[in-house]
Amino acid sequence: MSHTGVHRQESPGGVGVESLAQQITIDRGSPVPLYFQFAQQLQNLIETGVLPPGTRLSNEVAMADQFGLSRPTMRQAMQHLVDKGLLARKRGVGTQVVTNRIRRQLEFTSLYEDLARERRHPTTEVLSIVTAPADRGIAAALRVDEGAEVVAIERLRFADDEPIAIMRNHLPADLVELTRASLGGAGLYQLLRRAGISLSTAEQTIGARRATTAEAKLLDETRGATLLTMVRTAHDESGRPVEYGSHVYRASRYSFEMTVAAR
Predict the structure, then answer these.
(1) Can you give the pLDDT at residue 204?
(2) Which of 131, 149, 218, 259 is the most buried (most CB within 10 A)?
(3) What is the mean pLDDT of the chain?
(4) What whole-number distance in Å separates Cα of residue 51 and Cα of residue 4?
(5) What does pTM read for this prediction?
(6) Pick from 97, 122, 145: which residue ends a domain?
(7) Are 82 and 200 part of one and the same domain?
(8) Would residue 156 count as lying in a domain?
């Protein structure tokens, strides 16, 4: 039995199962797993805008009963979409459709500029800004003596008021004057350019790892959630290293994209 048309009935508790039942069909004769049938159709409703960001869904128990699925099957379907960054479970709120995932082209730009260009309303919380001696790794990246003074910055970046990334940067101490106010209102690369520093090239490595307890708390993620990592050393036109960054991003909300060409 199939259903056509869109008829949404929202209540304070979220989108009702009756509304979803008009748009999702489970075929028990199909070789496709039941959880995946449900997840795939719900994903289509999200990606086509039928269920826009911020929409709250009924609880999993009610939806499992309505669609004749076991609770573990419904839980697996919902977790599948949580893992893909389409749904989020929030304490005291329930399961909610989240803001569209941020996709970032691998270019020599700052996260702040990329978010502003996508109209994602970037904001920044400066967690710390201190002058400290460079350890061996930082010194090697910036080509300064080990123990030389460098500026160490840690920031929490938001997009549409949602935490997206933790950014840790190190710069030569005499390069540019940075304050909490300036870092809170602009991207680091913007501030470097305003100071007359022309950025030219960068070396970067992208990877992934588990979040620490502190990182998970800052990023509103579960303990041990997967984070994307990016380590970058930026150079000016003379080839001098001017910034070393080590950033982590929420894999559930963020991805890197690149364009490759055949040779």
Answers:
(1) 83
(2) 218
(3) 82
(4) 16
(5) 0.59
(6) 97
(7) no
(8) yes
Regarding whether 86 and 127 lie in a shared domain, the answer is no
Q: Report how many domains make up the chain.
A: 2
- Same domain, yes or no, for 92 and 110? no
Nearest of 234, 222, 223 to residue 167 by alpha carbon: 234
Enclosing H/E stretch for 254: strand 254-257
Mean per-residue pLDDT, 179-191? 92
Give domain status of residue 3, yes or no.
no
- The residues, any chain, with a CB within 8 Å of residue 96's CB and separated by 6 or more, are 14, 54, 55, 56, 57, 87, 88, 89, 90
Domain with residue 78: its CATH number is 1.10.10.10
Kindly indicate the confidence band of residue 6, based on its pLDDT and cuts at 50, 70 and 90.
very low
* Beta strand residue intervals within 113-225, DSSP E: 122-133, 149-159, 162-172, 199-210
Q: Which of 85, 86, 90, 62 is nearest to 75 (CA)?
A: 62
Q: Collect all residues with Cβ–Cβ distance below 8 Å to 139 and sequence separation of at least 6.
A: 145, 146, 147, 148
CA 15, distance to chain mean position in Å, is 25
For 108, the domain range is 102-257
Domain of 157, CATH number, reads 3.40.1410.10
Amino acid in position 72? P
pLDDT, one tens digit per residue, over 192-219 is 999 999 888 888 888 889 999 999 999 9
Whole-number Cα distances in Å, 229 to 167, 222, 255: 10, 17, 10
CB-neighbour burial class of residue 223 (10 A; exposed 0-12, middle 13-18, buried 19+): exposed
Identify whether 182 is part of a domain. Answer: yes
